[in-house]
Amino acid sequence: MPLEATAPLAKPGRAAAYLDWLQMLTGAFLILFMWGHLLMVSSVLFGRGAMNGIAGFLETTGLAQLGGPVIAVAFLLHFVLAARKIPFTSKEQRTAVGHAKMLHHTDTWLWIVQVVSAMVILVLGSIHMWTVLTDLYVGVPGSELGINAETSAARVQKWPWTLLYIVLLPLAELHVSIGFYRIGVKWGVIKRKGRKKAKLIEYIMAGAFLLIGTATLIRFLLMDVN
Amino acid sequence: MQTIFTDGLCIGAGLAGERAALEMAEAGFEVICLSLVPARRSHSVAAQGGMQAALGNCAMGEGDCPDVHFEDTVKGSDWGCDQEVARTFVDTAPVEMRRLAHWGVPWNRVVPGPKTYYKGGKAFEKVEAEEKSGLINARAFGGTAKWRTCFASDGTGHAVLYTMDNRAAQLGVTVVDRTEAIALIHDGENCLGAIVRCLRTGELVTYLARATMIATGGFGRIYRNSTNAVINDGGGCIIAQDTGLVPLGNMEAVQFHPTGIVPSDILVTEGCRGDGGTLLDKDQQRFMHEYEPEKAELASRDVVSRWMTHHMRQGKGVQSPYGEHLWLDIRHLGEEHIRTKLREVDEICQSFLGVDPVDSLIAVRPTQHYSMGGVRTDGTGAAYGLKGLFSAGEACCWDMHGFNRLGGNSLAETVVAGGIVGKTMAEFLAGCEVSFPTATIRDIEKREQERMDGLLSNVGGDGEDAFQVREAMFDVLDYAAGIYRNGTDLERGVAELQEIHQRSLNVSLKSNGLGANPEIALALKLPGMVRLALSVTYGALMRTESRGSHTREDHPERNDRDWLNRTLAYWKPGAELPLLEYEPASPSMAIPPGDRGYGGGKIISADEPKPSE
Amino acid sequence: MARTLRFHVFRYNPQDPASTPHMDAYVLDETESMTLYIALTRIREEQDPSLMFDFCCRAGVCGSCAMVINGRPGLGCHTKTADLPERITLLPLPFFKLVGDLGVDTGTWFREMYTRVESWIHTEKQFDPASEEERMDNETAEQIYELDRCIECGCCVAACGTARMREDFLGAAGLNRLARFMIDPRDQRSDKEYFDVVGNDQGIFGCMGLLACEDVCPKHLPLQDQLGYMRRKMAMNALTRILPWKK
Ligand SMILES: Cc1cc2nc3c(=O)[nH]c(=O)nc-3n(C[C@H](O)[C@H](O)[C@H](O)COP(=O)(O)OP(=O)(O)OC[C@H]3O[C@@H](n4cnc5c(N)ncnc54)[C@H](O)[C@@H]3O)c2cc1C
Ligand code: HEM
Ligand code: HEM
Ligand code: SF4
Ligand code: F3S
Ligand code: FES
Fold first, then answer.
1. Which ranges of A158-194 does DSSP label H, i.e. alpha helix?
2. Do A185 and C209 make contact, defined as CB atoms within 8 angstroms?
3. Any residues with CB less than 8 A from the CB of B504 and at least 6 apart, and which?
4. Is the pLDDT of residue B496 over 80?
């Protein structure tokens, strides 16, 4: 007698495994980039010279010209891969949110935060990268080509670009920290025993980066651009 | 009505039912198992202790062999068992344990070297032999001369049932869950299948089979307080007895456990008392030492249960919203001992009672635990009275337990008997042709449909409330057919149950009875349950002796002269009482009746002359 | 003690054309050591005989009685009212097909699951009744038992966001079941064969690490650790198979 089958047997194949590897690797790569990126940008806290020095180094060695597109590709690839797990239909979204509401379970909420932040990052991050990489003129007279503290400060100060950063910063930090924790959980690096501690580290990390980022933003905002 | 044909039909998908189904499936027959719940939720899953088989691998089981196991079993049964069946059982059990290992049961294994173990609260040492390393291990259980109980941590029943159901899935045995057999189909000579009610839709379905088996487990839930699952209400025994042709054996033989917790009646192990736990009454005073000065709380299961009941009858019970109970006190054993050595007890108290046994008392009372009686079969598992009907497991009276089963023997029985009966059924299937007389089948279908429609068409009528009738039955069994029995109460009980039987036939539903409605399920089963209760009570009234778990205050002696026999309870159509017949307990006596060595009591030997009238 | 409890219970009988999904309220005096099993049974017997729910062992070992208790999937028999507020909301487990009120059909799903993961020992060896059992290390036996303890209650699946969004997800219970056979030396399946069962988005790569399974499992199975282990093992398996000499 046949069972009330609900699921056909999935066809054997290795694609899912490779895609999962890629998702994790692009994620991990982006995390490393984001940490580096934040630290480099925040160098402005030590003065324009510090930031300009680093930027100059990256520009002259060609790392920036090479890195930019690589990051952009990784960013898009990561999006395409992660999109397999994102609830796009409104039915799925309702299920996901309704489920999280019913369950009042932190890790499930964290995932919702990750998905929502991802969509915002996708849009705002793309815009941001575009502006930075093309040295888009944002109305600062006399600004030079390439990344430097003045241009950045000008960009940050210019409304509504300011808003972009205010939104992007916390969401990016959340997404990154949660992503970091989640890679640990999914790949079994964080075990049952270490979970509490890992989560604490995740929160501390998010908080620390948010703090540094905010300080940097304020520094940019207060910087005299001319 | 939908009709389904199959070779073999197992009513019940617990260990006994599935084990038998596997034999038939391996022999190439199509088998369907029916079950009230998904197979893996059958009550076999709840057995934690283990199952007995004389493998003799562990140090404390050294020198064990089927002969020793046989002796323990016969003594345990108080000579009420069929000794030929017991013999087959003890010889086959070791092979079945190994077969289960082959199928995937994660039995605990022997680890060589010295080990500490506890007995009566004291530590002892034993040394496991190097050459036994990795073989199936065993633990101690009450009433056995050797450590013989094979186990898988604290979930033997779970591990074995899951393995069995895995195997069933592998061999393509179909298990139809949420179904309830409500009548057997027979032509007066052959059993032809069953009428089955779907517990999702409430509809009736006809299953026609060349061989039918009853493996529906115990019927403990005719009692108010039972360690059995709430689904164990004797459906299989009811439909067998309802044929009027198939007798139920030894229904008065019902086992009680001294320490079921209140209110959920979950069992807590005897280990508590073994390790020094005491029983207290409402004044928080010990009492067991007054009744049993030597052994006190350490006396055997039935003895402790009896004195507990007696003490509560003296007005010493603690009153609670769930009825009377006593206290189990293990506080003095200390936190460390409780959290480690008695971990299971600790967990049960915390999760189900919300009390911490380290500083609180545990509410307990004697609780129905096991039904030795059931569908009477011969040694091959063929039921008396109908061809093509078979039975195994707790639902059955194959009869290796007699009047008292040993802990660990019943789980082993399910697989041993399941295997044997499955083989019998496969042979029967290979050699039989059955014709299905449609008129007979239609009559039975119609009768059952009308019974159900009768209830559905009278919703809100002025008949009896099913739950209240059941309460009335509980009350009677509590005072008449509990641990202590006496002629006066039993007589009153039988009379009251007869009235209750009439009431049970006149139930009207308060709810609409559609789909998975629980009220109609109870209403359909209730008259049969009362008939089981009557079979227990009437059988107990007639049996004027005390044997095993059957204790008559007015006949305290075991009477081998008049009662070395088995009760067979028939229910003839339209009757108001069961028809009792008797047969010899055993066709042969490899071990002649003697003293059990525990439990005490006087014995009237078989040769003693009858008092002249 | 002596609180008055208010139960808000989901009601719907799919077999009754007049029935629509709604919540019913019942009021009950709390008694000592009351569990949801005691409470619901009393409601059925004293107030509403039509109330459908599933209890079987009522001792936390059979997995029948999973339901959503104030938002969280859990076992009804294993939940004491003393641990809950006075207002108790009970819903049937989501994800599974509703049988009626609080009763859901976990049986069909689990049967489907174990035919999918072929939840049995795969071996060429024949059983020989005459010979001694094959030896096994006790530690291995205990490890297997540790994963075998799942009671198929369905809490982990109902709590899993992934399962809620994709019906064909095997769930933590299914993945754990396969892990149980992977560590069993009696099962002769190769890693590739295991991979073919779970190496996809219906299996281990569908899991997003939400860990609700881990947090609701009433038997505290080590689901988090098993899922992590399984992902690593399966992912490595796919990786090594890129190498031409590993085919
Ligand atoms: C708490 C507890 C602990 C125990 N511990 C031990 C122990 O440690 N060792 C030991 O040896 N024994 C133990 N026992 C006894 C032992 O567990 C049982 O005797 C044994 O499991 C019975 O198995 P079974 O296959 O006969 O029935 P069950 O496992 O009860 O299965 C009965 C099956 O029949 C089905 N069914 C019932 N009625 C119908 C119907 N009308 N229509 C269709 N299907 C139906 C049920 O759904 C179920 O599938 C214990 C018992 C209890 C209560
Ligand atoms: C700099 C930017 C980003 C970083 C550093 C980053 C980092 C990460 C990391 C580390 C993970 C966990 C990976 C895993 O679970 O395997 C992750 C998951 C995810 N990311 Fe990103 N991400 C970024 C941008 C984006 C964008 C633009 C999107 C999509 C619009 C996105 C969508 C997701 C989603 C949906 C997940 C969850 C996937 C899952 O749980 O399986 N991310 N991200
Ligand atoms: C190659 C890619 C990138 C480059 C070169 C780059 C460069 C910069 C620079 C120069 C700034 C300073 C402000 C400015 O000039 O606008 C900045 C700030 C910022 N960037 Fe990027 N960025 C890149 C990618 C990203 C991505 C992918 C994200 C997030 C998803 C991101 C998030 C931010 C945020 C949040 C700030 C504000 C930081 C703060 O104030 O602390 N950037 N970035
Ligand atoms: S893994 Fe835990 S939650 Fe999931 S079905 Fe098994 S016991 Fe229930
Ligand atoms: S909740 Fe679901 S997503 Fe994975 S970690 Fe548990 S199975
Ligand atoms: S009734 Fe068995 S687990 Fe709750």
1. 161-186
2. yes
3. B464, B469, B473, B526, B527, B529, B530
4. yes
A10 pLDDT above the threshold of 60: no
Closest-approaching ligand to the CA atom of C235: 2
Average pLDDT over all residues of chain B = 94
Inform me whether the C-beta atom of residue B174 falls under 8 Å from chain A C-beta atoms: yes
Tell me the shortest Cα–Cα distance from C201 to chain A, in angstroms: 6
Q: How far is the CA of B256 from the centre of ligand 2 (A)?
A: 60
- Please report which helix (H) or strand (E) contains residue B272, including its range: helix B271-274
Residue with tokens 């180094």: A57
Report the topology of domain C106-246. Fumarate Reductase Iron-sulfur Protein; Chain B, domain 2 (1.10.1060)
E strands along A20-152, which residues? none
User: Over 80: is that where the pLDDT of C85 sits?
Assistant: yes
What confidence score (pLDDT) does residue A124 get? 96
Number of the ligand 3 atom closest to the C-alpha atom of A175: 30
- For chain C, which residues make up each domain, given as ranges? 4-104, 106-246
At residue C219, the pLDDT reads 95
Both structure tokens of A150: 């003045």
ipTM of this predicted structure: 0.93
Residue A133: which of A141, A143, A145 has the closest Cα? A145
pLDDT digits 0-9 by tens, A55-92: 888 888 888 888 888 999 999 999 999 999 999 999 99
Residue closest to B260 by CA, chosen among B356, B347, B366, B331: B366
Q: Residues B302, B551: contact at Cβ < 8 Å?
A: yes
Chain A residues in contact with chain C using a Cβ-Cβ cutoff of 8 Å: 3-14, 16-21, 84-85, 87, 92, 95-96, 99-100, 102-105, 107-108, 111, 182, 185-192, 195
Residues whose CB is less than 8 angstroms from the CB of residue B250 and which lie 6 or more positions away in sequence, other chains included: B80, B372, B373, B397, B399, B402, B403, B539, B566, B567
**Protein residue with least CA distance to atom 15, ligand 3:** A152
Ligand nearest to the CA of B368: 1
**pLDDT at site B306:** 84
**Contact predicate B213/B173, CB 8 Å:** no
For domain C4-104, give the fold: Ubiquitin-like (UB roll) (3.10.20)
Task: Report chain C residues whose CB lies below 8 A from the CB of B510.
Answer: 49-50
Which residue's alpha carbon is at the smallest distance from atom 2 of ligand 5?
C160
Residues 6+ apart with CB under 8 A from B333: B121, B275, B276, B277, B342
B107 and C114: CB-CB below 8 Å?
no
How far apart (Å, rounded) are the C-alpha atoms in residues B209 and B191?
A: 8
> Does the beta carbon of C103 lie inside 6 Å of ligand 6?
no
pLDDT-derived band at A4 (thresholds 50, 70, 90) equals: very low
pLDDT at B191 over 80: yes
Residue A1 with chain B: CB contacts under 8 Å: 32, 174, 176
Domains and CATH numbers, chain A: 14-222 (1.20.1300.10)
Residue A142 pLDDT greater than 50, yes or no: no
B567: part of which helix (H) or strand (E)? strand B565-570
Domains of chain B plus CATH, in order, are 254-369 (3.90.700.10), 453-559 (1.20.58.100)
- Answer yes or no: B273 catalytic: yes
* Nearest bound ligand to the CA of residue A164: 3
CB-neighbour burial class of residue B28 (10 A; exposed 0-12, middle 13-18, buried 19+) = exposed
Catalytic residue among B167, B186, B221, B257: B257
Closest by alpha carbon to B52, among B186, B164, B115, B144?
B144
Contact B213, B17 (CB under 8 A): yes
Whether A37 has a pLDDT exceeding 70, the answer reads yes
pLDDT of A1 above 50: no
Q: How confident is the model at residue A226 (pLDDT cuts 50, 70, 90)?
A: low
| Contact present, C142 and A38 (Cβ < 8 Å) | no
Neighbours of chain A (3+ CB pairs under 8 A): B, C
